[in-house]
Write a structure and sequence with these properties.
The protein is an alpha/beta fold. The chain has a domain at about 65-170 and about 255-295: HypD, alpha/beta domain 2 (Rossmann fold). Helix content is about 40%, strand content about 15%. It has helices at about 10-20, 35-40, 60-65, 65-80, 100-105, 115-125, 140-155, 170-180, 190-195, 205, 220-235, 255-265, 295, 315, 350-355, 360-369, and strands spanning about 25-30, 50-55, 85, 110, 130-135, 160-165, 185-190, 210-215, 240-245, 265-270, 275-285. The strands form three sheets. It has a five-stranded parallel sheet with strand order 2-1-7-8-9. Strands 4-3-5-6 form a four-stranded parallel sheet, with helices on both faces. A two-stranded antiparallel ribbon has the order 10-11. It is globular, with a radius of gyration of 21 Å. About 50% of the residues are buried.
């Protein structure tokens, strides 16, 4: 679609006008952790019409990682004398055996890295070490993991494996829509993931489930324009798939990246926090790459473990509650002493609420806009 320059005041005016013409209140859900943080940081929630609600969905990679998978990471670190490489957001997520940060303070070799290739290169430089990469994230972070595995195979590395917890966005959205206790009128679809998977993958959400989908960028004006457009759809009784981020997102996505993903991985059942186990919602290494599967090499057994007592992270990331409806929020659970992953991750809804969802914060953001 043809794009034009739009300013935030124009987008806000359109949003407010469309909201006034709605026949009933509407609820939309963003499915991206970056959208979650951006919306709070720019004060968007404080500017929303009273009859338009924006919920956070399962878009934070750290937050949707199941409690059992968190425990598996800590187990492989503590019990198998390996070097575990992980992204920084995973360090402080609590598991039944503590956190990776605590494991490191007790002597475990846990290293924060910035890419899967960093982990692979560490294994190459230290053949005496068993290096395990904690592979989490959606389709956006999966291609780099695939590249690292491909290079490790070319080099014949025997000391590099990945503990895979990569997930797919569409099965999670479908699971939400098939649930009985989550009701949304449409989705603000993720820009980053959509660069890889394309816009047309959301077509079944629109055609089968009759939910509006608007793909958005991450600046305040992008998100406001997307909310204005999806609210206009609701006002006009339209259910459409619209791509408002065409400068980065194409209908078919990045075919090179998709080919690489499915050369190395195949769909697999995967456990999600808040959504339990969903069929074909994650990825596992294909048979020809099983030598790089940490679960197989170290005999790890994935299992369901309960979330921390009282923690409602699973409900928060599936739109069943807001953070302040959790009794632990801001009292027992804070960014300094987190109980659940939504308070740990930089893309977590609870951390965003804690930082920005205060009356003074909302006022400052409103004035800034």
């Amino acid at each position: 679609m043809k794009t034009r320059t739009i300013n935030i005041q124009e987008a806000l005016d359109r949003l407010q006008t469309a909201a006034k013409q709605l026949e009933r209140p509407v609820t939309f859900m963003e499915v991206c952790g970056t959208h979650t943080m951006s919306a709070f940081r720019c004060g968007l929630h404080s500017l929303m019409p009273e009859n338009v609600t924006l919920l956070s969905g399962p878009g934070c990679p750290v937050c949707v990682t199941s409690q059992g998978d968190i425990d598996l990471l800590i187990e492989v670190t503590v019990k198998n004398n390996v070097t575990l490489c992980t992204y920084g957001d995973m360090m402080r997520v609590p598991g039944q055996l503590g956190s990776l940060e605590q494991a490191r303070s007790h002597g475990a070799d846990v290293q924060v890295i910035y890419s899967a290739m960093d982990a692979m290169q560490l294994a190459q430089q230290h053949p005496e070490k068993e290096v395990v990469f904690a592979a989490i994230g959606f389709e956006t972070t999966t291609p780099p993991t695939a590249v690292a595995v491909t290079e490790a195979k070319k080099l014949g590395l025997k000391n590099f494996t990945v503990l895979v917890s990569h997930k797919l966005v569409i099965p999670a959205m479908t699971a939400l829509l098939e649930g009985v206790d989550v009701n949304v009128d449409g989705f603000l679809c993720p820009g980053h993931v959509s660069v890889i998977i394309g816009s047309e993958v959301y077509r079944p959400i629109v055609d089968k489930y009759k939910k509006r989908c608007v793909i958005s960028g991450f600046e305040d004006v992008h998100m406001t324009a997307a909310l204005a457009r999806i609210t206009e759809q609701a006002r006009d009784n339209q259910i459409l798939l619209e791509n408002l981020y065409p400068q980065a997102v194409t209908p078919k996505g990045n075919q090179v990246a998709l080919d690489l993903i499915f050369k190395i991985f195949e769909p697999a059942d995967m456990s999600w926090r808040g959504l339990t186990q969903l069929p074909k919602s994650g990825l596992k290494l294909r048979k020809e790459y099983e030598d790089f599967d940490a679960e197989l090499r170290f005999g790890l057994v994935s299992r369901e473990t309960p979330e921390p007592a009282g923690c409602r992270c699973g409900d928060v990331i599936t739109g069943r509650c807001q953070p302040d409806e959790c009794k632990l929020f801001s009292k027992v659970c804070t960014p300094v002493h987190p109980i659940g992953p939504c308070m740990v991750s930089s893309e977590g809804t609870c951390q965003a609420w804690f930082k920005y969802h205060q009356p003074q914060s909302r006022l400052r953001k409103k004035v800034a806009l």
